[in-house]
Amino acid sequence: MQLIHKIAASVGLFAVALGSVQAQNKELVVGSSATYRPFAYESPSKEIVGYDVDIIKAVAQKAGLQIKIVNTPWTGIFAALNNGDVDLVISGVTINDKRKQSYDFTAPYFEARQLIAVPQASTAKTLKDLAGKKIGVVTGSTGDDISSREFGKTNPDIRRFESTPVVIAELANSGLDAAIGDNGVIAFRVQEHKQLKTVNDPSFPKEFFGIVVKQGNKALLDKLNTGLAAVKADGSYATIYKKWFQADAPTLPAQ
């Protein structure tokens, strides 16, 4: 009988150890909206590529994490995280106090500002110059927040869309007077339309993007921060930044 108990105990310990190994090797699902070029977009072969993709792959490698990147529409990306459909999000998400009430962020991996796009003939120089104009933003984005604070959340002149390419296409087709969004994406998209230009409002604050996890998921957050720190330290971050933005990487804050 004692032998049976010992065997049972050994089997139990093995199962626990096996479960622990399987948990460590679990493939994590990464949500990213692949309409956010150059941060994340689909290549002609339908592979998701971009700056965010390169960053999370490098971070995961350093942290010893197995990941799978899934194209997740921006409008539902936080719901997917809340529901457990994805384990983490990297999709040009600005770190701000409002979002930190509901989610946890890694240290910054990108420095950003909002940027305005307008037709070449526009005389607008700042956000305030857009009063009474039709402004396009991505729903729930920082551009949406800034426009809502300046002109009122229910202002009918603020037109909300599901992605930046749709906003810029609407502007290029004269359906809008201006568009507001993250500098990297707006600048990239405006290059595709010669009739558009960008306007940099100096009053727009500096922002930072972070990788997002469920609030309280400290174990995953710590691993991601460790991986991100390693990527910054060994030069990988600077290489990835140069690849996508043809510029030297800025020095980012630790938190």
Describe what this molecule looks like in 3D.
The protein has 255 residues and is of the alpha/beta class. It is built from nine helices and 15 strands. A five-stranded mixed beta sheet has the order 11-10-12-9-13, with helices on both faces. Helix 2 (51-63) packs across helix 8 and helix 2 (51-63) packs antiparallel against helix 9.
Please tell me the overall pLDDT: 90
Order of helices and strands: HEEEEHEHEHEEEEHEHEHEEEHH
Please state the overall shape, judged from the principal axes of the Cα atoms. globular
Helix content: 25-40%
Strand order of the largest sheet: 11-10-12-9-13
Number of helical stretches of at least 4 residues: 9
| Low-confidence runs | 13-23
Strand proportion, as a percent range, falls in 15-25%
Which structural class is indicated by helix and strand composition? alpha/beta
End-to-end C-alpha gap: 57 Å
The number of strands is 15
Tell me the Rg in angstroms: 22 Å
The main pleated sheet reads as:
5 strands, mixed
Search tags:
255 residues, 39% helix, 15 strands, alpha/beta, 3-stranded parallel beta sheet
